């Protein structure tokens, strides 16, 4: 399927959520996972069926297993174009577009002053949780704990107060910058610039919503758009703001 997951990425996902495997004899032909965010919400992803097993309804069976496991939760996912009909038949509705950008960043990226962006400290974690809840409407404490333990987290300051955060970690072919949470595009760019100062010459991936308005700038700095995903929801999304998600941690986690 050419998905760029390393063994470490699979291990991380299984710590963050719960997975299913479909096998034919000793051969794995499909996978799927879901990631609870409290008792009311969840995301699903990593829905993969091997090429020679496609067209036999295995993807639908995996999705149904996920939905049964998630119960009455509102479910958020990011779908390929091909997957859209399957999800629409299960009452999912489109709510947005995700642009996947990747490549080796061009030029030099200046680190913002330390009184604007600095490394996260352990005492910052509860503030990050609060900002993330504003941005997503979800309680993602277990996922965020894993992310800050695995990656490098930085926080954005305004008059000494934390108003945004970003996490950079190894993933796939290189590094992923995300989640990035802030209130404005300019704040999100500061956090991304700070992350890129440590990634010169490295392969970087950033997944961002079309409404975040980061895509033109990401393309300018060498992170080319390579594919889109359709964000879909079954149920009712919670209210969010003023903080917003400008980059995803992963299309499966959001």
Describe this structure as you would to a colleague.
With 254 residues, the protein is of the alpha+beta class. It folds into 2 domains: 7-98, Aminopeptidase (3-Layer(aba) Sandwich), CATH 3.40.630; 101-226 and 238-247, Aminopeptidase, CATH 3.40.630.30. Helices cover 27% and strands 37% of the residues. Strands 1, 2, 3, 4, 5, 6, 7, 8, 9, 10, 11 and 12 form a 12-stranded mixed β-sheet that branches. A hairpin with a 3-residue loop joins strand 2 (27-37) and strand 3. The radius of gyration is 18 Å and the shape is globular. The mean pLDDT is 94.
Helix-strand makeup class: alpha+beta
Secondary-structure element series: HEEEHEHEEHHEEEHEHEE
The amount of beta strand, in percent, is 35-45%
Largest sheet, described in full?
12 strands, mixed
Number of H/I helices: 7
Quick one: how many beta strands?
Answer: 12
Classified by CATH, the class of the largest domain is Alpha Beta
* Relative helix content: 25-40%
Q: Which outline best applies? A: globular
What's the mean pLDDT score? 94
Q: What's the Cα radius of gyration?
A: 18 Å
Gap between N and C termini, in Å? 21 Å
The parts where pLDDT drops under 50 for at least 5 residues are none
The assigned CATH architecture of the largest domain is 3-Layer(aba) Sandwich
Tally of structural domains: 2
CATH level-four homologous superfamily name of the largest domain: Gcn5-related N-acetyltransferase (GNAT)
CATH fold assignment of the largest domain: Aminopeptidase
